[in-house]
Amino acid sequence: xxxxxxxxxxxxxxxxxxxxxxxxxxxxxxxxxxxxxxxxxxxxxxxxxxxxxxxxxxxxxxxxxxxxxxxxxxxxxxxxxxxxxxxxxxxxxxxxxxxxxxxxxxxxxxxxxxxxxxxxxxxxxxxxxxxxxxxxxxxxxxx
Length: 143
What we know:
This is START domain-containing protein. It is a single chain. The protein is α+β, with helices and mostly antiparallel strands. It has one domain: Alpha-D-Glucose-1,6-Bisphosphate, Chain A, domain 4. It is built from 3 helices and 6 strands. The chain has a 6-stranded antiparallel β-sheet with strand order 1-2-3-4-5-6. Strand 2 and strand 3 (47-61) form a beta hairpin. The chain is globular. The chain starts with a helix and ends with a helix. The model has no long low-confidence stretch (mean pLDDT 76).
């Protein structure tokens, strides 16, 4: 299941009324569990945000794995991305009594200093939410 979710992170997914992932391309594979991607996003359909993110997966415990993204900010570049950083992910956890079941949790940290309120709302609807719904749909279909 983790491999299928990790594979989903390579693709550009759908959008909400507040957020669209316009383009995503891998800049560098650092390892099997870590890659740098260049992302162009549209927030509130009015402005384009361009930045780089780390896509990562790592074991949190023997029975849980976190797959997510972390924005990369560089003060030396003229980024069109507003100040603030974010880390968000999907935690896949197998209960100790059933190896075939998976619990899916959305988790994240947002540093929204200097970010307008309406944009904060849009960031909470980012594409990782679509990844979560894709996982849930896949779990239901495979059940």
